[in-house]
Write a structure and sequence with these properties.
The complex is a heterodimer of chains A (421) and B (270).
Chain A (H helix, E strand, L loop, with lengths): L1 E6 L7 H13 L4 E9 L13 E7 H4 L24 H12 L5 E4 L2 H10 L5 E6 L8 H10 L5 E4 L2 H11 L5 E4 L18 E5 L8 H14 L4 E5 L5 H10 L6 E5 L5 H4 L4 E4 L8 H8 L4 E4 L4 H5 L6 E4 L4 H13 L1 H14 L5 H19 L12 H31 L1
Parallel strand pairs in A: 1-2, 1-4, 2-3, 4-5, 5-6, 6-7, 8-9, 8-11, 9-10, 11-12, 12-13
Helix pairs in contact in A: 1-14, 4-5, 7-8, 7-12
Chain B lengths: L5 E10 L5 E6 L7 E6 L10 E5 L1 E2 L5 E6 L8 E8 L6 E10 L15 E8 L5 E8 L2 E10 L2 E9 L8 E6 L6 E9 L2 E7 L11 E8 L7 E2 L19 E3 L2 E7 L5 E7 L2
Parallel strand pairs in B: 1-8
Antiparallel strand pairs in B: 1-2, 2-6, 3-4, 3-7, 5-6, 7-8, 7-10, 9-10, 11-12, 12-15, 13-14, 13-16, 14-15, 16-17, 16-20, 18-19, 19-20
Classes of the chains: A alpha/beta (421), B mainly beta (270).
Chain lengths: 421, 270
Amino acid sequence: MKISFLIHNAYAIGGTVATTFNLAGALAERHDVEIVSVLRNRERPSLTPHPRVRLRALVDLRHEKDHPLHGRPAKVFPAAEYRHGQYSELTDRRIGAYLEAIDADVVVGTRPGLNVHLALQAPDRVIRVGQEHLTLDNHHAGLRTVLRRAYRRLDLITTVTQADAESYRRKMRLPGVRVEALPNSVPDPTLPAADGSGRIVIAAGRLVPVKRYDLIIDAFARVVAEHPDWQLRIYGRGEEKGRLRTRIETLGLWNNVFLMGAATPMEAEWVKGSIGVSASDFEPFGMTIVEAMRCGLPVVSTDCPYGPGEIIKDGEDGRLVPAGDTAAFGAALLGLVRDDGRRRRMGGAALGNARRFAPAPVVARAEALFREAVEARSGGGRGAPAHSGLAHTLRTGGHAARDLARAAATSALRTVRKGRR
Amino acid sequence: MSTESAVDPRTDCTADADGRITFRLRLPSPTRARLLLARRHAKGRPEQESRTLTLEPAGSDGEVRAVLEPAPPLAEGRWDVYLLRGPDAERERLRPGLRDVRALVDGGLRDRPSPLAVRVPYATTDGFLAVRAWLRTAHPEASRVDIADGTMTVHARLHGAVLSEGAAGVLRLRGDKDTVRGFPVRRAGGGFSFTVAFGELVAEDGGARVWGVFLRPAADAPLIRVCRLLDDLADRKGVFVYPRVTVGGSVLRPHYTVDNDLAVEVTAGG
């Protein structure tokens, strides 16, 4: 298959960029894969894509920041989308032209506004996949209304957790659109796993309020009081840095808690630690939890919606504590700091259990979903998916009826577009 | 920006606790390639030293390896890492891949013989692979810095020498070798500590100044710089950040310099 990923900015650091690079890289072993970045702000991407994945940008902000069309608000990219301010008539046009000329079998949008572009502008010959990297409930009502209407024209929606897939099925009423969970994958580590002997607790991510690094620091104060030879290292950059620094100073933790700045790749950092932590109030997936586990670290995490609870088995390969509960977080952390044997056992379990997020099983799942969507579109006669049951037959029927409606809608849209020129 | 082209894929390396560094990269044609380490000098001055290592094939997928053995030690400084593809090839500066330096994390916990040689592979600010090296006959390694009640207590451990009678923590004004303040050393466990009264570091006119932190291991012995070198961080200036303290209208802040030397900065309050 030829697969094209459309992403906001492949040159920045972020969970969506990392997971898209991972999936694209794994698919590129057997398929023709490109990543199309709407925006570009630097020469090299912060993360390194797989050498077989082609990367290109539609709008290069280094030269086109002052393009007159970039000053006009986007019309296709929905105004209710969080990133609308970074989109413009220029991005509308470039994305539209890219989709009009697309020769891929499958096009994958990686955020709501881009999924709307796919729904409105991608031609019928390509399978349109909308990826949800956040959660439906996290979008505000205005955006949900836009998505409910537009997403009817997608072939497949993938969420990163089962819980969110269920939420889409229950709340969105999208006849004929398949909704399935496709977890993020984390590449197979190349370094030997951590052996549990380290005395470093590690957290990583953007320094933003929702990640609750303040809670981690508060909880770690309890660890330091009992085990002054332990360190907490927080990797990442962001708006919270100053406040976190103040907290570290107020609690007198400057000899034990360190703001490390951004590190890519994180693998060589995780293996220095023996416990991973994540205290988010909201975590659609929990990429860093899986990264830490794949390096052999048990992870202490809040049980926030939705990711951590679908990754960690409490008491077996990590700990889950109620969101926002500093005392419970500190107690869980201390339980692992005090007990070397338990920490090592859980680290070993984490290493094994996190293999389900390796590229191989995740990419096999993505491949199957994409192929089934292609086959469903082409009539479903040959090579219907093995697990196809009544529900799927109904869906396929929905596709056929919808295709007719969409063909009419698309040709009407094209006519309108031509008229505008 | 350097005119030397960068090589991809990236170069992984593993550091051992005893100073050995193993470099690994993949080359399309590994024959007769070598790795070059060149010690960087101040702008405009020529490099004086370099070290060439043979890249040996390892495995079947084009991976080559070079090992920098612990002996002889590298001279103190920043060593840039280059690839030489053939005998007459231009050198190509290498970019870092995974730097497995976990063996260095607890380097301050064990005694080191003299001379003390430290090597930490790191990524330069412009994204290239380099090795930071220190070479000291004796070295006081700082650990905790406690700050309370207008004082700073520096905890440290002396490697490569022994503390004698009359040992002192000494702060010396940068740019003026004759202005020093001494503070008595207390021994504790395998280490020592001394407490600096910030009030003694403030200038009468309230002006800005920087004090270097030293150890005088014995009465009349020369000063040795107090630094933190024995872990996995080549540059800790932005990571080990201590609080500011206001004393007599001046603001004092202990910090590490770009060379990982402990220092105290004094600025006018406001």
